[in-house]
Amino acid sequence: MRFVTLVLAMLALPALAGPPRVENVQVTRTGSTWKFAVTVSHADEGWDHYADAWRVLDMDGNVLGIRELLHPHVEEQPFTRSLSSVRIPEGTERVQIQTRDSVTGWNPKTTIVRLP
C-alpha cells in the first residue's frame, strides 16, 4: 500500500512545480502607451504544463493588457517576452504583473512594478 501511495504522490509532483515567477520587468513609455518586457521562469514540462501567459493589471485588479505565450519554454529558462501598446490611465504610479500556467491557472501572487 505504501508503494502505491508513493507512486501516486510522485505522479502529482508536476502540479507542484509552482507557479511561473516574474524575474524581471522592464517598462518603457512610448507616447501615450507603454511597453512591458517581462522575464518569467517556470518548470515547463512540455505541452501538458507550461507558463502560458502573463498580464498587466492596475492596482484594483483590472486587466490592462495580456501576453499569451503560445508554446512551452522547456529549453529557454528564464525567458523574456514583450507586450507593447498597453494603455495605462494618466497618474498611475504602479501596476501588477500576474503569471499563468496551463495547469494551475492564474498565480494569486502578483509582482508590483513602479512605473518610471
Offer a quick outline of the entry.
The chain has 116 residues and is mainly β.
Q: What value does the average pLDDT take?
A: 86
Percent of residues in beta strands: over 45%
Number of helices: 1
Rg calculated over all Cα atoms = 17 Å
Report on the structure:
- The protein is mainly beta and 116 residues long.
- The protein is 9% helix and 47% strand.
- The chain is built from one helix and eight strands.
- The protein has one helix at residues 2-12; strands spanning 21-30, 33-41, 51-57, 63-68, 79-86, 94-101, 105-106, 111-114.
- Strand 3 (51-57) and strand 4 (63-68) form a beta hairpin.
- The longest helix is centred in the N-terminal third of the chain and has 11 residues, at 2-12.
- The chain is elongated and about 40 Å long.
- The model is unreliable at 3-15 (pLDDT under 50).
What is the element layout, followed by pairings?
Elements: H1 2-12, E1 21-30, E2 33-41, E3 51-57, E4 63-68, E5 79-86, E6 94-101, E7 105-106, E8 111-114
Antiparallel strand pairs: 1-2, 2-5, 3-4, 3-6, 6-7, 6-8
Characteristic terms for this protein:
mainly beta, five-stranded antiparallel beta sheet, 1 helix, 8 strands, 9% helix, disordered N terminus
